Amino acid sequence: MGAVAEQEMKTTRVEAPLLLRKAAVLGAGTMGSRIAAHLANVGVNVLLLDLPGSEGGRNVVADKALEALKKSKAAAFYTPSAAMRIQTGNFEDDLAQLAECDWIVEAVTENLEIKQQLLARVAPHVQPHAFLTTNTSGIPVGSIASVLSPELRRRWFGTHFFNPPRYMRLVEVVPGPDTDPAAMAALSAFLDQNLGKEVVRARDTPNFIANRIGIFFILETLRVMREEDLNVEEIDALTGTAIGLPRTGTFRLADMVGLDILAYVARNFAQARTDAGGQAALPPFLETMLERKWLGDKTGGGFYKKERSADGKEERFVLDLKTLEYQPTSKPKFPALDMAKNVESLPERLRILLSGDQKKDKAARFHWKLLTRLWNYSADCLPEIADSAASIDAAMRAGYNWQLGPFEMWDAAGVAETVARVQAADEPISPVVEAMLAGGAKTWYADNGTAYYDLATRRYQTVARPAGIAHIATFRASNGVVRANPGASLIDIGDGVGCIELHSTKSTIGDDIMRLITKTLEPSSEFVRDFRAFVISSDAENFSVGANLMQLLLAAQEGEWEDIDLTVRTFQRMTQSIKFCPRPVVVAPYALCLGGATEISLHGARRQAHAELYMGLVETGVGLIPGGGGTKEFALKATDEAIHAFGDASRVAISTEIVDTMKQAFETIAMAKVSTSAAEARSLNLLTEEDGITLNRERLLLEAKNATLALADAGYLPPVMRSEIPAAGESVRATLRLGAYLMQQSGYASEHDVKVAGHVAHILCGGRVAPGTRVSEQYYLDLEREAFLSLCGERKTQERIAYTLSNGKPLRN
């Protein structure tokens, strides 16, 4: 068992981080206001200050920023109510309020003189316990602090967020020459545990780590693009998911970030890279775009733009960098790229792409030039910008959403092999990697990535991980697999907890996942005897996108109704095994958790959700209803809420409360609502107040483990199948169906939408029964199954499923 795995197994509980009650953000620009929003998301009261206004009130600058936050896409707040935690003000009237703040973040314009002048005014109001940090992306942290007293300089350091702060995981923490390590460690723990950030310590060098490497990569991409005569769309295809980078590629990402921001950081980079000559200069086309204010999404056009044609359709155009004119988009063709995309493993894809014939294959030449230059530059930056290769890789994964950092990529491609090829071509190699190879080390990492090559000691050192961070893969490697099939595995994650890991292709739920969950959790299972508790989660990008629709569509088109009936029964049996398991089952959803995945989650004893949770029962979008117990669970929730509000179970079916709670349940399912956060999932009744929310995705597994152990330690008893549930009945059913009909009359719903919604209302209300008729959970499940089968036979449902599978979007027919 590796040392890291042992640490992860033993450190399942971590100390609570710093209690931070109120913060101030100085500067209400894009970054400052969004930092304030994310602090408000996690319950911190925030004072947002900027320059005083001459018209529209003294706080007009900060007020406008707050209003923009409320309307921003993607959403800056977890829920709209979080905005109430932000108080606006200005630098002249409100500096005295800084005495109430535990953390003050400077985020004004990137100008050394302006920052120093503001800090000199701020300093008298900073309490001795408070942290004072800067969000600068390029100005040396130490130089900004020269106006501060020695006492304040001890609590002064850089906290460089990436935009948008809610969604981007990286915060580079940059000490000044006088920073107290304990102060930096305390705030780093808060950033990690309370704000959900990957905290990477950087050195006080221009652009720190991620932008230093990232901007080099972008500028080098432009350089190789010109060498190989490639266009914008070709570059975006070559620098996207095929090599483990975001699907936006280079230019679409630049449009999202803003070309002005990109240019600013690039100029900082050019100043830092004094040996690069013209290689670090902005290309002429980018300078022209800046002059014309073609800054990307914020100005309506950059490398790409959208326009509406005469018939109202939205068309997308791309910039020709030679003529600087827009032209219609087209899909680039690279046979080698198409072949590599079919390979699941990124290391294998990289090896395939780099092994292409460079004399014949332009894509192979592009990748070889770009990646070898990236690797050499990254090695040259050690140890100037970071303590280790592991820090650089972590910064690029979290700050630029790379799947692998540059040194991890290099290991995947083979360090010795690529160095030999570069040397054979008489190209330069970084002295850092030459020294590593000469010393006998062949890779940047060892022991399955848990140790990195340390330049100072010339030995492999353990990659430091904060307590409480773990991945299923580590336990899989250390403890092995208890049982598995192609879709799921049961892993022992220590302390008597078994983790059911979902790992099917694209996280879809098929027969294999249903079988493994059911056989693991049903009362007679040997695993129920062997384990005290269970967690259901995954290491994949998304928890699950739901059931396997392709399998369902093929069965429906072939008229295999008995097979579909069996599949629905099997799915229901799986969710019932979760709910009635004698051991507590905590489901740990994150990212996309749709359809059948939400039904899995609803049946857990508890849920421990990641804050960024996009969860919903979306079946109506493809012309179906939640048939795995999801509609049933909403019927039970609505009934129980009405009983609690009305106070009389015997007469609840004729109360106004049952109408209100059923309406909410009906709207959530019939409108296929998806939460924009875990906090919003609570308001949709997809999560409860008892369910936990984890801010840091890396901590989700162990926090879910802690939650299920807490249930086990408290003497967990599973629920029993209910049989005396007062159905809402025909009158409420008619009310819900009328609501759907009125939406159709108003143009908000199609005829098929109304038909599907009618099935939802039918199930929620217990069918055509008198109000208060006592029914069972199994009765609701039978109604679900009947409705699901009926809708599968509808031509319009099959059209919706086929369209969604082809286009990834719902069809309104």
UniProtKB/TrEMBL annotation:
InterPro entries: 3-OHacyl-CoA_DH_NAD-bd, 3HC_DH_C, 6-PGluconate_DH-like_C_sf, ClpP/crotonase-like_dom_sf, NAD(P)-bd_dom_sf
3-hydroxyacyl-CoA dehydrogenase NAD binding domain ranges (all copies): 22-204
One Gene Ontology molecular-function label: (3S)-3-hydroxyacyl-CoA dehydrogenase (NAD+) activity
TM annotation in the entry: none
One of the protein's GO biological processes: fatty acid metabolic process
Keywords assigned by UniProt, alphabetized: NAD, Oxidoreductase
Known catalytic reactions: a (3S)-3-hydroxyacyl-CoA + NAD(+) = a 3-oxoacyl-CoA + NADH + H(+)
Ranges for domain 3-hydroxyacyl-CoA dehydrogenase C-terminal: 208-305
Organism superkingdom: Bacteria
Descriptive protein name: 3-hydroxyacyl-CoA dehydrogenase
Source organism per UniProt: Terriglobus albidus
Organism ancestry: Bacteria, Pseudomonadati, Acidobacteriota, Terriglobia, Terriglobales
